[in-house]
Amino acid sequence: MSKLLLNLRHVGDDEYQNVCALLDRLGIAWYRTEPSPWGISNGGLWVREDADHPRAKEAMAAYQAQRGERMRAQRAQELRDGTGETFANLLRSRPLYVVGVLLVMLVVASLVLLPFFLLRG
């Protein structure tokens, strides 16, 4: 019976290709399910054989640890270079968008808290 190894929600093409190459290199049979057209499921990478699943999970954990370390180093380098996206950069480049989002967040928070204040008094 197949087991899910990786949900493809928010997985970039580079990560997907790296994981596929890793599984191929280890000789682990896998297949991909596509996301549904209505957005109900996001697709995934599945390991075909139950016996391969622990080995695939172990390799996946090592890959994710390595990738996380590499992405954190890349983010730190971008911040040092001044090319990384920060709140201040976003506010300078898209002020109307940032102010609009903050206003929407304020409205939503007010609507959520409104019953609390009405029932309190």
Give an overview in words.
InterPro entries: DUF6164. This is Transmembrane protein. The chain crosses the membrane at residues 96-118. The chain is mainly alpha-helical and 121 residues long. The protein folds into 2 domains: 1-84, Alpha-Beta Plaits (2-Layer Sandwich); 85-121. It contains 4 helices and 3 strands. α1 (13-26) runs antiparallel to α2 (53-81) and α3 (87-93) crosses α4 (95-120). The longest helix is centred in the middle third of the chain and has 29 residues, at 53-81. The chain is extended and about 60 Å long. The relative contact order is 0.10.
Structural class: mainly alpha
CATH architecture title of the largest domain: 2-Layer Sandwich
The biggest sheet, with number of strands, parallel, antiparallel or mixed sense and barrel status, is: 3 strands, antiparallel
Q: First CA to last CA: what distance?
A: 58 Å
Identify low-pLDDT runs: none
Name of the level-1 CATH class of the largest domain: Alpha Beta
What is the spatial order of strands in the main beta sheet?
1-3-2
Please name the defining characteristics of this protein.
121 residues, mainly alpha, 11% strand, 2 domains, Alpha-Beta Plaits
